From TrEMBL:
Protein name per Swiss-Prot or TrEMBL: LacI family DNA-binding transcriptional regulator
Pfam families recorded: LacI (PF00356), Peripla_BP_3 (PF13377)
Residue span(s) of domain HTH lacI-type: 11-65
SUPFAM superfamilies: lambda repressor-like DNA-binding domains, Periplasmic binding protein-like I
Gene Ontology terms, MF aspect: DNA-binding transcription factor activity; transcription cis-regulatory region binding
Domain of life: Bacteria
Keywords, comma-separated and alphabetical: DNA-binding, Transcription, Transcription regulation
Provenance organism: Gordonia jinghuaiqii
Start and end residues of each stretch annotated as Disordered: 1-27
PANTHER family, A to Z: LACI-RELATED TRANSCRIPTIONAL REPRESSOR, LACTOSE OPERON REPRESSOR
Gene3D superfamilies noted in UniProt: 3.40.50.2300, lambda repressor-like DNA-binding domains
Length: 339
C-alpha cells in the first residue's frame, strides 16, 4: 500500500477542498487554471490554499512522477471476442469523455490497444492510466500496479475485490428497472442475453437478474467468440420453444442485431409478442424499424469521475488504496420495443 507522500503537518489538496467546500478535482483544476470553473469558485479555492499555506508538490501534481502528464487509456476486450471496443457506442463516448476530462486537467491521454500487456509499461513515461472493463485477474492491471503507475478502472477486477479506485453504473438498480418494467407490462418469461467474459458488468447484471426473476426468467450466456449466426440461432430457439420468451434484455450492443433477426425468424412481433430492452443507449437502439427501450448509462459523467479520481488521489496518495468507488445512476429511456 502506498502511503501519503505529504510531509507531516503539511496541508494537502483534500484539506484545501474541505476548506473551500469543493471536490479535490475542482481544487486541482482551479490551481492549474484548467476546467470550466467560475471565477468565484477559482478565487475561493485560491483563498483557501493561501489560508492553509498549501503549495502544490510538482511531483505529486503530475500524478506518479510529474514528468509528462501522459495518461494511458485502455479498453479491455476479451480475447477471441467477435466484437471490438469501437463497435460499442458506449465505449466510444466514454473514451471521448475520459480524453476530454484529462485534457481539462492538463493531462495528455494516449489511447492504447486492448492487448497492451506486451508493452514495456515500466519503461514508458505514463503518469496514470484509465482501464475500461478489466478482465478477471487482469494481467495488464497487475502490470500497471507493479510498475507504480496510478490506475483507475471503469468496472472492477472481480478477482481483486479489495482494490479501490473504480467507477461504474449501479447494475442492481438497472436490472431492477428492467424486471419491474417487464412485470408491469405483462412479460412473464423474460430472458437475459449476456456473455461469459468474467467482466464485472456482465457478472453484476447476471447476478441481479437471476435473483430478481426468481426462477421465472432465464439467462443465456454466450462465449465471447460466438458468431453472429450462432447468436441468432440460439435466440431464435428461445423464441420458438414450447414456452417462448416474451421479454429479452440484451447486455452487449453487438448482439442486438442478430437477436432482432432471430425474433423476426421466429415470426414474433415487437412489442406485442416480445418486449426488448438493451442495456446501453446507442444509434442501434434509436434507429431501425422499431426503436428500442434502453438505458442512458451516463458515459460522459463516468469519464469525468474516473479522471477526477485519478487526478485528485494521485496528488496525495495512490488511488488503488485511497480512492472512492463511485456508482453513477442510469436513466431508462422507454421506446417502441416495450408496452
Amino acid at each position: 500500500m502506498t502511503s501519503d507522500r505529504r510531509a507531516p503537518g503539511r496541508p494537502g489538496i483534500r484539506d484545501v477542498a474541505t476548506r473551500a467546500g469543493v471536490s479535490p478535482s475542482t481544487v486541482s483544476q482551479a490551481l492549474n487554471g484548467a476546467g470550466r470553473i467560475s471565477e468565484a469558485t477559482r478565487a475561493r479555492v485560491r483563498d483557501a490554499a493561501a489560508e492553509l499555506g498549501y503549495r502544490p508538490d510538482p511531483a505529486a501534481a503530475g500524478m506518479r512522477s510529474g514528468r509528462t502528464g501522459l495518461v494511458a487509456v485502455i479498453d479491455r476486450v476479451p480475447p477471441q471476442s467477435t466484437w471490438r471496443w469501437d463497435d460499442l457506442e458506449f465505449v466510444v463516448r466514454l473514451v471521448h469523455s475520459v480524453c476530454g476530462a484529462a485534457w481539462e486537467h492538463n493531462r495528455y491521454p494516449v489511447l492504447l490497444p486492448s492487448d497492451s500487456l506486451e508493452l514495456r509499461l515500466d519503461g514508458m513515461p505514463f503518469d496514470g492510466a484509465v482501464l475500461i472493463d478489466p478482465l478477471p485477474s487482469d494481467p495488464l492491471l497487475a502490470r500497471l500496479d507493479d510498475s507504480g503507475i496510478a490506475a483507475v478502472t471503469m468496472g472492477r477486477d472481480l478477482d481483486r475485490p479489495a482494490r479501490r479506485g473504480w467507477a461504474d453504473n449501479d447494475k442492481a438498480e438497472q436490472c431492477r428497472q428492467v424486471v419491474e418494467l417487464f412485470r408491469r407490462t405483462g412479460s412473464v418469461r423474460p430472458m437475459l442475453l449476456s456473455a461469459n467474459t468474467g467482466q464485472s458488468y456482465m457478472h453484476d447484471n447476471t447476478e441481479a437478474f437471476t435473483s430478481l426473476t426468481a426462477g421465472s426468467g432465464r439467462v443465456l450466456e454466450l462465449p465471447p467468440s460466438t458468431s453472429w449466426d450462432e447468436c441468432r440461432e440460439l435466440v431464435r430457439q428461445a423464441c420458438a420453444g414450447p414456452e417462448p420468451i416474451d421479454g429479452l434484455y440484451i447486455l452487449v450492443e453487438a448482439l442486438v442485431q442478430p437477436s432482432l433477426q432471430a425474433i423476426h425468424d421466429a415470426g414474433l412481433s415487437i412489442p406485442d409478442d416480445i418486449q426488448v430492452i438493451t442495456s446501453s443507449d446507442s444509434n442501434v437502439s434509436r434507429s431501425g424499424p422499431v426503436s428500442l427501450t434502453s438505458f442512458d448509462l451516463g458515459p460522459e459523467r463516468l469519464g469525468h469521475e474516473l479522471v477526477g479520481m485519478l487526478v485528485a488521489d494521485s496528488a496525495d496518495a495512490d488511488p488503488r488504496s485511497t480512492a472512492d468507488s463511485r456508482l453513477v445512476p442510469v436513466e431508462l429511456v422507454e421506446r417502441q420495443s416495450t408496452r
